[in-house]
Input
Amino acid sequence: MIAIEGLSFSYPDGTKAIDQMSLAIAEGSSVGIVGANGAGKSTLVNHLNGFFLPMEGSVSIGGIRVNKKNLDQIHKMVGLLFQNPDDQLFMARLYDDVAFGPENLGMKAADIATLVENVLRELNLWELRDKPPAHLSQGQKRFASFATVLVMNPEVIVMDEPTADLDPKNRRKLINLINGLGITKVTVSHDLDFVWDTCQRVCIMNKGRIVEEGPARDILSNRELLEANSLELPLRLQ
Output
């Protein structure tokens, strides 16, 4: 589903964030991307739906190259969950935020209404549909952000620090939601216990490269490997 080949990217100040990275992610799999701050994780995420375009190498989603010509198609295929829900929620009502994507696809109003109601009910947010997102709790904002992505029925969902600011109850609710999705999932997170609970495979990034990849529980239980890349064992193993 995701093929990255020889990807390199540098910021205008010369900082090289991605350095000749190659990675393949199978359809329907759940993969965690972990690494210390500055390893290049968020830069990688921004390449998966075309916010950044490759300077060298290529990124393909479902066999379609991520480039200017294909951006509309890529945006339909890949849903991105931002680290901060306030970056994703910008309308006056929650309902309008969730309807925004389908409206921009030119869908019929009746179809949009059905889609939005179904997603909001599934996430137990229907009763909040008329509330301004700014008035929602942090947990409600997180699931509202998910609603804006899931309503688009993406083939891939990419999550950047999805557990940030969640209390234990909402964190468990999020784990159950993610594990119930039958699509390709990519999770970037410092929460290695969350990655343990939701990911089949894990890739460790360091200095813009994948330095190790394998089954999640093998990687996340390897203290020496994690510490060599400025990470620590999941709390459950400490």
